[in-house]
TrEMBL record, chain A:
SUPFAM superfamilies: MOP-like, P-loop containing nucleoside triphosphate hydrolases. It comes from Haloechinothrix alba. SMART domains: AAA. One of its GO terms (cellular component) is ATP-binding cassette (ABC) transporter complex, substrate-binding subunit-containing. Residues 4-236 form the ABC transporter domain. InterPro entries: AAA+_ATPase, ABC_transporter-like_ATP-bd, ABC_transporter-like_CS, ABC_transpr_MalK-like, ABC_transpr_MalK/UgpC-like, Mo/tungstate-bd_C_term_dom, NA-bd_OB-fold, P-loop_NTPase. Pfam families: ABC_tran (PF00005), TOBE_2 (PF08402). This is Carbohydrate ABC transporter ATP-binding protein, CUT1 family. PANTHER family: MALTODEXTRIN IMPORT ATP-BINDING PROTEIN MSMX, OSMOPROTECTIVE COMPOUNDS UPTAKE ATP-BINDING PROTEIN GGTA. GO terms for biological process: carbohydrate transport. Keywords: ATP-binding, Nucleotide-binding, Transport. GO terms for molecular function: ABC-type transporter activity; ATP binding; ATP hydrolysis activity. The keyword ATP-binding applies.
TrEMBL record, chain B:
This is Carbohydrate ABC transporter membrane protein 2, CUT1 family. Residues 1-30 are annotated as: Disordered. It is found in: Cell membrane. Keywords: Cell membrane, Membrane, Transmembrane, Transmembrane helix, Transport. The chain crosses the membrane at residues 37-64, 102-127, 139-162, 174-194, 215-240, 270-293. One of its GO terms (biological process) is transmembrane transport. Coiled coil: none annotated. It comes from Haloechinothrix alba. Residues 1-17 have a biased composition (Polar residues). Residues 103-293 form the ABC transmembrane type-1 domain.
Amino acid sequence: MATITYEAATRFYPGSERPAVDGLEISIEDGEFLVLVGPSGCGKSTSLRMLAGLEDVDEGAIRIGDRDVTTLAPGRRDVAMVFQSYALYPHMNVAENMAFALEMAKMPKQERRRRVREAARILDLEPFLDRKPKSLSGGQRQRVAMGRAIVREPQAFLMDEPLSNLDAKLRVSTRSQIAALQKRLGVTTVYVTHDQVEAMTMGDRVAVLNEGVLQQCDSPRALYQRPANAFVAGFIGSPAMNIREFAVHDGHARIGDRDVEVSDELRAALADEGLDRVLLGFRPESVDLVGPSEGFTASVQLVEELGADAYLYCSIAGTDHAGDPDIVTRIDPARPPRVGETVHLRVRAGHEHAFSPVTGERLSS
Amino acid sequence: MSTTVTETADPSGSTAAGSDAAPARPRPELRSSRRKALAGSLANVSLAAYFAFSLIPIVFILALSLKSNADQTTTYLAFSPTFENYRTVLGIGDGGSSYVRFFLASLVTSVGAVLVSLAIGIPAAYAAARYRFRGSEDLLFTLLSFRFAPELAVIIPLSVIYQQLGLYDTFVGMIWVLQLVTMPLVVWILRSFFQDLPAELEEAALLDGYTRRQAFFKTVLPLVRPGIAAVSLLAFIFAWNNFIFPFTLTSSNAQTVTVSSLAFLGGNQVQFNLVAAGVVMAALPPLVLALFIQRYLVRGLSFGAVKS
């Protein structure tokens, strides 16, 4: 178990001008569960593979504990990886798959067997130790891949979308099992996913990447409540945060048919930047249905009823992009308005996020 | 936590179709299954007929090889079989013949060509499957073009070159030219085998402590063994059956069995029965090899490694 440090780690793919991972700086605590998340092509898998040694580090360095592993061979980094496809050795049975790395490390046979037994017990794999991977179900294969990592008792677990080949239901249960297992073993873990729900539910901290650049690395709660920029704000949360650009005049932002006063702080920030427009974001749960005199007018385009919640997709009156839903709001599912109905909406005071329309960076505190 | 995924594939397909039809009539699925059975037996009969048809040349050659000189052009199946042709071809009781030598020459050159193309083709196929580099596709296509370019187009310059280099009628020369035939086969077929193996498998091996070389030799190579067996057999058959190269590039020393049978057609007598005996014996090595290698031809060893 160890800390992991990315020090301005950069990776250029051959023939590409733009780095796949650009100056990544993250310090991961001992025993921490860090999730790398982002849209496809954001460099999250590349970052993980750089840590594993499967991808070169072109600039910067990576440390595991106090060892600089930047140029070390993958097998000598003492990390175990769980692959998306599991990558089980098809010609070996479950026990052999799990013991393989231990054998390579010339561990005595008794210790090997003890560790495989123990991992099989933890993962409910005891009945399958003699089976070949092809006779296992997807969930079982996934657990063998986990077992293969566990038996090594490595410095760190690296997981590259290990749940994406499971069906939705199994994914949810396995998700909590992996998180619980990691807490119990206390092994530093770096976990890659494109699924922000996975990221939010599993990680101690979540690092959001986009186009090779780290956007924000923080606890799930902090990411949700104080996104550092418009990208993180839009990426984290489902349905996504409503983010629209609004003109600001005399300390008021014009939202549909109503002027909304902006805070003094935001007004000052806008003045500092010399901006007369602002990107305002508000989460679906921060928008309330109100009486006709209180909020801006919108017409309902779509109602999504999920049982516990319902979401209204509305277009704000007075905006030019008609037909395209402008705003999503979470409402009480008991009495949803009908499609086509006119409603009045108000953003809860203090729940809006303001970003620069130029840089996308957060303006309000 | 244990879960079992059972996937039941119904081979008969659409049995549920039309199950909501009126109950008075014969059930449609029954009718369709009867039709299916009829279609099945028709298919079997025609396959059997085709099988019999395709056996004709083999039976013909086998029969011919057992006929005496007098019988060879006069009868089809009514004759008294004799092994005299085989004795003559092999030179038994006659102080030996060159047939055995030609046969061995065929073996040496074919096996040699297969080994050379495996030694070079396996790494080439691996590289072609795993790495894309400038011109890699062109390179592969050029290699493939060796297969579809007519051999006759190169035979004259090749024989001149061989004469000048002293490769004419040598084993080295024959192996060299035959691996031109077999190498593209090895590279193209094995490439798809390597492509089917996920790169993650090697990466897992790297993380488990293998070096790149070990990961290749101990993880990848064992998994493509069925492919290597299949392609070796194919390459051997192609090399063994090749006629034009030994015909033009050898005279006696490295001449192969495919060419040597021609000797029975020259001179005063045209002895098809002797040719047939030679051909039957020449067909044995690929046949034996195919039977021996058959179990390796079954793919599927690598299935289950990953969920596709």
